[in-house]
Write a structure and sequence with these properties.
137 residues, alpha+beta, 5 helices, globular
């Protein structure tokens, strides 16, 4: 099972780290796994580099797209796909600060339908995997 965290990065910060995704991964990793004495600076810094998601709009867009699909369920801010043909089981939870996708595939369906116009950085901490969503083919 993989866990993807999706962060919307501010445009000016994106320009600094666009060609250095490993550096951004290390920064985000340290922000989300800080040592106790670094928690307050980490919280302040994450506010500086990310843009919050609009939960209402994103939830509505996902629901409108998937509502007629036989394998889709939505409960509050969590969207689920259980595809019997492809064997994909994915869950996307919309938070203000990030999106969390838990899945049994390497590239879940939800990633295909998140706006590629935004500067979204996707991280799987456990597998040390990271990429810009708009660059993923």
């Amino acid at each position: 099972m993989r866990k993807f965290y999706c962060f919307k990065i501010k445009e000016d910060y994106y320009k600094l780290v666009n060609n250095r995704p490993k550096e951004l991964y290390l920064i985000i990793h340290n922000l989300y796994h800080p040592e106790e004495y670094k928690i307050n600076p980490a919280i302040n810094f994450i506010k500086e580099i990310r843009v919050p998601f609009n939960k209402e709009i994103l939830n509505d867009n996902l629901y409108n797209y998937y509502q007629d699909k036989y394998n889709y369920i939505k409960v509050n801010n969590t969207h689920q796909i259980n595809d019997y043909f492809t064997k994909e089981r994915s869950s996307l939870t919309v938070y203000n600060n990030f999106l969390l996708i838990e899945t049994n595939t390497n590239f879940p369906t939800f990633l295909k339908h998140i706006s590629k116009k935004e500067k979204i950085f996707v991280v799987d901490f456990k597998n040390q995997d990271y990429f810009w969503l708009h660059e993923y083919k």
